[in-house]
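call fold target=Delta-9 desaturase
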Amino acid sequence: MRTWSDNPQSLRLDWLTVAFFAIIHALALLAPWFFSWSALGVMLLLHWLFGSIGVCLGYHRMLSHRSLRVPKWLEYAIAILGALSLQGGPIFWVAGHRLHHAHTEDEYKDPYSARRGFWWSHILWIFYPNKEFFDYDCYQRYATDLARDAFYRWLNRYFLLLQIPVALLLYALGGWSFVIYGVFLRCVILWHTTWFINSVTHLWGYRTFECNDNSRNLWWAAILTYGEGWHNNHHAYPHVARCGWRWWEIDMTWWAIKLLKNLRLAQDVNLPPK
């Protein structure tokens, strides 16, 4: 049973979304004219904080797969960091990811199916939104555990506004240089590194496990995404908190989880089978 029209051409290009992403990319291209080493440092710090801690640890391993448990106050704080990545609210992100795992590479049920091509899985799925995946009343049923929580409903609705205090703080600290690097360039780089997991890690790399999909382990994607690029490992055991299993499969997000565990802030951490 299809979840949307059998004809992919029935999806319409969302020009407002295209304009939004085009503007952010255009502003990011101003970076060479606003360069400073401190601005670059701010961008790298926020890329790690919002990317590794917010998205990889928070949205992905903690909320989507429940591969670890932390105190509620810390869970909320990490979720805010995920929202600051500008990749959508937590209910939207988690629902889409759970659908991806439930129907991996199905051209109709997987929101960013790699079988529809590199560009579809990388970005076009956002430009041609399917109501099943983008309308709250539709997608919230795939993340009912979050949708029942008033905080997550609020964060899902207002995540975009969180960029305003971040931008104001960065401007106060370092002027437009910090804003260009800490907001716009950081957003663009973090978007594309995250989207690489949807696209390239279903195309290139090696396979440690035989899964019913084309997921791959790709070293350079893992470096750019703090461990998420060990995607074949993850698809084989999605509820395991660690994506890099071999000693040379670097997983920086796992290092953060280990630190939380050692501080007794993370419990019920799911480990790879022995």
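return ok
Residues 163-199 form the longest helix (37 residues). The two ends are 38 Å apart (CA to CA).
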